[in-house]
Amino acid sequence: MPETDPAPRAPASRIAMLALIAVLLAAGLAGLAWFDARSRIGATQEELARRLHDIDANAREARAVAAQTQEALREAQVRLGQLEGRLADSQSQQLALEALYQDLSRNRDEWQLAEIEQVLAIASQQLQLARNVRAALLALQLAEARLARADRPQFAPIRRALARDIERLKAAPVVDFPAMAMRLDNLIASIDSLPLAFEERTEREMPARASAADRGLFARLAAEVWNELSQLIVVRRMGAAEPPLLPPSQAYFVRENLRLRLLNARASLLARDEAGYREDLRATAAWVQRYFDPRSKATGDAVAQLKQLSGISITFDMPTISESLDAVRGYKSRRERAPG
Fold first, then answer.
1. Which end of the chain is more exposed for a tag (fewer CB within 10 A), N or C?
2. CB contact set of 312 (below 8 Å; sequence gap of 6+)
3. DSSP alpha helices (H): ranges in 106-196?
4. Contacting residues for 274 by C-beta, under 8 A, at least 6 apart
5. Single pTM value for the model
6. Mean pLDDT, to the nearest integer, of 72-92?
7. In angstroms, rounded to a whole number, what is the distance separating the alpha carbons of residues 155 and 110?
8. Is there a contact between 220 and 212 (Cβ–Cβ < 8 Å)?
9. Strand partners, 292
10. Chain segment 137-191, per-residue pLDDT in tens
11. Given CA atoms 144, 149, 150, 155 in this order, what sign does their dihedral have?
């Protein structure tokens, strides 16, 4: 009997081994299933967190866009209010302009005459204050052109008066006072560039000395000896006026006095003081010819301009346009006295 016991135990041990293997396989499969489930759950959580983050970012962007939209809406409302205010102002201005136009259109003749009277008054001021014949002539021609476009028979006396005043202004001498004042300003600006007579004389002596320095030793010695000998005896023409030698300080005062003379001439021109104007120009021309180099082109041009300016008469009998003004004012007074 003891020899037959191991036979039944062997199948039982194999069954137990198979069961253990089955349990281990089941446990491994369960572990794999659990690991796979855990991985899927982790991936799902990460995807859920990413989507929640995207949703949060989109929500913040939406809130920012909403805030910008609200701000833009407020600005649009403010601008709309401003536009409405401007529209109201423009409408009120348009109503005022329409009322003004209606008031003016009630009597077009009076409006035209008032405008022409104002133009003639300005032209009269130009003649009296500035003696500007050209501006007054343009004003009278403008008034006559407006009356010609109106083509009203009742304006015929005014047009005849305007024509007579225009002829008188055309016959008056035309003096361009602004251009003359500008020429004087140019002369004042060119004073510092005019060469003095003694400066030009010393400049003529310098090239001779420089050319002697370029020669040889014996030539320079001979030139210096000849220069010393020539200075012992000097022959001068007593009849010819020698340009004065001025120190630098005196030369400065000569230029300043010349500038003051020209400024006085300009002031006399604007004041229509012909005696003072001519005297200042005469003294200026004399100083330029005495103290400045007459062979310089700038000096010659300055003297020529001074002679041209002094030859222009700045005082003459200035015509008036009182006839045209009296015609316009008389017509207006007759209309005001007329019934209806």
1. C
2. 175, 180
3. 108-125, 133-150, 156-171, 177-189
4. 268, 313, 314, 315
5. 0.45
6. 86
7. 12
8. yes
9. 196
10. 899 999 999 888 888 888 899 999 999 999 988 887 777 778 889 999 999 999 9
11. positive
pLDDT in tens, 165-174: 999 888 877 7
Inter-residue contact 133 to 307 (CB < 8 Å): no
Q: Which residue has the tokens 């005001």?
A: 336
With vertex at residue 147, the alpha carbon angle to CA 141 and CA 149, rounded to the nearest 5 degrees, is 105
Q: Where are the domains of the chain?
A: 105-175+320-337, 177-235+243-310
Q: How many residues are listed for the chain in this entry? A: 340
The single-letter DSSP state of residue 128 is: I
What's at 176, amino acid-wise?
Answer: D
DSSP H or E stretch at residue 287? helix 274-291
Q: Cβ distance 320 to 124 under 8 Å?
A: yes
Which tens digit of pLDDT belongs to each residue from 99-124? Answer: 776 666 556 777 888 888 888 998 88
Tokens at 132, concatenated: 């500007």
Tokens of 315: 């005082």
Instruction: Report residue 43 as tokens.
Output: 């991936």
